[in-house]
Amino acid sequence: MKAQILVGGFGTRLRPLTLSVPKPLVDFANKPMILHQIEALKAIGVTEVVLAINYQPEVMLNFLKDFEAKLGIRITCSQETEPLGTAGPLALARDKLADGSGEPFFVLNSDVISEYPLKEMIEFHKSHGGEASIMVTKVDEPSKYGVVVLEEATGQVERFVEKPKLFVGNKINAGIYLLNPSVLGRIKLRPTSKEKEGFPKIAAEKMLYAMVLPGFWMDIGQPRDYITGLRLYLDSLRKKDASKLASGTHIVGNVLVHESAKIGEGCLIGPDVAIGPGCVVEAGVRLSRCTVMRGVRIKKHACISSSIIGWHSTVGQWARVENMTILGEDVHVCDEIYSNGGVVLPHKEIKSSILKPEIVM
C-alpha cells in the first residue's frame, strides 16, 4: 500500500518555530509531527510514503532518510514548483501512487493529529464499495470549517458546505482520505482543491463515503491548537499506554519526559507537558501546559505555562513565561524576566519583560 502526505507550504502560523525547520519537522510530543503519521501508516502495512512538498524538500528528505532505514518504509518526494492546492499534488504524484495494483492509497494532511484508525478505515472503504472514503470529525464550532453533510446510516456524502452561516451539521473534513486509483484520473495537474472540485463530483455520483473518526482530532498548525492537541494526545496515550508517561510526586496529570532529560529537586510538572531530549530542568521549576523542546535549559524557580519553548533555548532563574509565549530556536530569557505572550524569533536574548503579546524581532 502507498500513501501521500500533503506537506505543502511555509508553516507561517507556527513561526518562529518554522523559521528553523519545515513545519512537519516541528516536534510534537517529542517527535516530529510527520513521524506520528508515518509510524501509523507503517503499522498498517504501507510500504511507500510520497511527500507532496513545495518548500525545502532537501531538508525534509535528508531528515527522513534516517527514519527510512529505522522504520523500513520508502519515503519519496513529489515537488511542486508552484503551489498546487490540495488536489494538484495527487496529479503530480500520479505515477508514484498508481502502481497498477488497483489498491487504494491514503492521503493525509500533515497538520492533523489523531489516533489514526487507518485499519478501520480500510475495512470501511472495502465495505461500502465506493471510490473514495474521507474521515470526518465532530466539532463544536462547525462554522469555522468545511462541513460534510452525510447520510447517517450509510455514511454516504451528500454535499460539502464551506464555513456555513446556518447550521447544516457538525461533522468536518478531518484531513485523512482513502482513495481508489481511479480518483487520480479525475484530477488535472493545476492548482485545484479536492474539497471544492474533486470530492463534490464524486459525491454527486454517490461514490464518496465518510467515516466518523473515533477518538480525538486536532489540526495543530497554530500554537493554541498545538497546545490543545498536546493535551488530547497525552490523554489518549494515558488510555493506550500509560507506562510511557512520567510518574512521581513531582508530576501532576499527563507528562511526557524524554529519558535523557534531567529534572531537579522540588519541581512541579504538569498537567499536559512534554519535555524533550537533553533538556535540563533545574530545582523548583513549575511547568504546565507547555512543550519544552530538545536541549532546553530551564533555570531554578522559573515558571512556564501555556507556552512553547523552542530548541536549545534557556529560561532564566525566577523568570515567568506564559499566555502562548513562543520562543524560537536558541532564545535566551534572562533571570527574573516576565513574558506575557511574547513571540520571539530565533537567536535572541530577552533582557526586558514582554508585558503584552507582541513579536520580538
From TrEMBL:
Gene3D superfamilies: Hexapeptide repeat proteins, Spore Coat Polysaccharide Biosynthesis Protein SpsA, Chain A. GO terms for biological process: GDP-mannose biosynthetic process. It comes from the Eukaryota. The keyword Membrane does not apply. GO terms for molecular function: GTP binding; mannose-1-phosphate guanylyltransferase (GTP) activity. Its EC number is 2.7.7.13. Pathway: Nucleotide-sugar biosynthesis; GDP-alpha-D-mannose biosynthesis; GDP-alpha-D-mannose from alpha-D-mannose 1-phosphate (GTP route): step 1/1. Residues 251-360 form the Mannose-1-phosphate guanyltransferase C-terminal domain. CDD domains: M1P_guanylylT_B_like_N. Residues 3-233 form the Nucleotidyl transferase domain. Transmembrane segments: none annotated. InterPro entries: GMPPB_C, GMPPB_N, Mannose-1P_guanyltransferase, NTP_transferase_dom, Nucleotide-diphossugar_trans. It holds the Pfam family GMPPB_C. The keyword GTP-binding applies. Keywords: GTP-binding, Nucleotide-binding, Nucleotidyltransferase, Transferase. PANTHER family: SUGAR-1-PHOSPHATE GUANYL TRANSFERASE (PTHR22572). Belongs to the transferase hexapeptide repeat family. This is mannose-1-phosphate guanylyltransferase. It comes from Coffea canephora (Robusta coffee).
